[in-house]
Amino acid sequence: MPSPPRTHLNPERTSKHILNAQVSIRAPCCRAWFDCAQCHAEQRPDHRLRRTTEMTMLCKKCRKAFRKDLSDPEQWEESDEFCPWCDNKYVLEAKIPQAVIGVEGEDLRKDNRMIKDERMRQPARTDLDDAPRPPQMELTPEELAELEELAG
Ligand SMILES: [Zn+2]
Ligand SMILES: [Zn+2]
Ligand SMILES: [Zn+2]
């Protein structure tokens, strides 16, 4: 069992749902960084994850942020599955702890992509479960400033 990847930004908040999460995603509702929609549901039980057509993500490998526009799924290309800064592929087959899946004999390697995940079909629906595949976007200066603050 590989140990979960760590992030400097939120070491205590590494997703226990997706062990190999390559990016953190910023919630549009509370502006908190989280690794998956389920993490948001657990960390912020007071509200639902707000839907958005623009997702801000932070690459865990190079710790740089980028943005994805979800409004036009037609524009998603294979290159969009990679971090625009370091080419780290962040759309992966999610490594999910056995206990969370709870279905014996299920092939964990089947299409369990990070933003289109089996577990997302559970009641706590969020904007990540059926998110269309977005094209790449630049960060606004405000967001960059915010991230520099975060990174310390
Ligand atoms: Zn999680
Ligand atoms: Zn929130
Ligand atoms: Zn990167």
Automatic annotation (TrEMBL):
Taxonomic classification: Eukaryota, Fungi, Dikarya, Basidiomycota, Agaricomycotina
Compositional bias of kind Acidic residues: 140-152
GO cellular component: mitochondrial intermembrane space
Protein name per Swiss-Prot or TrEMBL: CHY-type domain-containing protein
GO MF term (any one): zinc ion binding
Keyword annotations of the record: Metal-binding, Zinc, Zinc-finger
Species of the source: Gloeophyllum trabeum (strain ATCC 11539 / FP-39264 / Madison 617)
Domain CHY-type: start-end pairs: 8-88
GO biological process, one term: protein import into mitochondrial intermembrane space
Region ranges (Disordered): 115-152
Domain of life: Eukaryota
PROSITE patterns from the UniProt entry: ZF_CHY (PS51266)
Compositional bias segments (type: Basic and acidic residues): 115-132
Keyword Zinc listed: yes
